[in-house]
Design a protein that fits this description.
The radius of gyration is 13 Å and the shape is globular. The longest helix is centred in the N-terminal third of the chain and has 11 residues, at about 1-10. Strands 2-1-3 form a three-stranded mixed sheet, with no helix packed on it. Helices cover about 25% and strands about 30% of the residues. By secondary structure, it is of the alpha+beta class.
Length: about 80
């Protein structure tokens, strides 16, 4: 969790957390196909709270992808403001 927070702080480059309704797109690239994403979603959203957005209640849409990439396991995050 702290590694994700560090990367998120760097990516935000001092910008304040986003406000309003958001769509969060997550990509979980695991080293094997045996992993599932349901246990990783909440900790990822919680880790971004206060950095990328004020509260994870702002997340109105969530898109999640999983793939197997043994050479480059990672989590990719994209956050988009939802326009009314």
């Amino acid at each position: 969790r702290s590694a994700l927070q560090l990367v998120a702080k760097r990516a935000m480059r001092g910008a304040p957390p986003m406000d309003g309704e958001l769509e969060v797109r997550l990509l979980f690239a695991y080293p094997t196909r045996r992993n599932d994403v349901d246990g990783a979603i909440k900790p990822t959203l919680d880790a971004l709270e206060g950095i990328a957005y004020g509260n994870d209640r702002q997340v109105g849409a969530l898109k999640v992808r999983k793939l197997c990439d043994p050479e480059a396991p990672r989590v990719e995050v994209e956050i988009v403001e939802v326009t009314p």
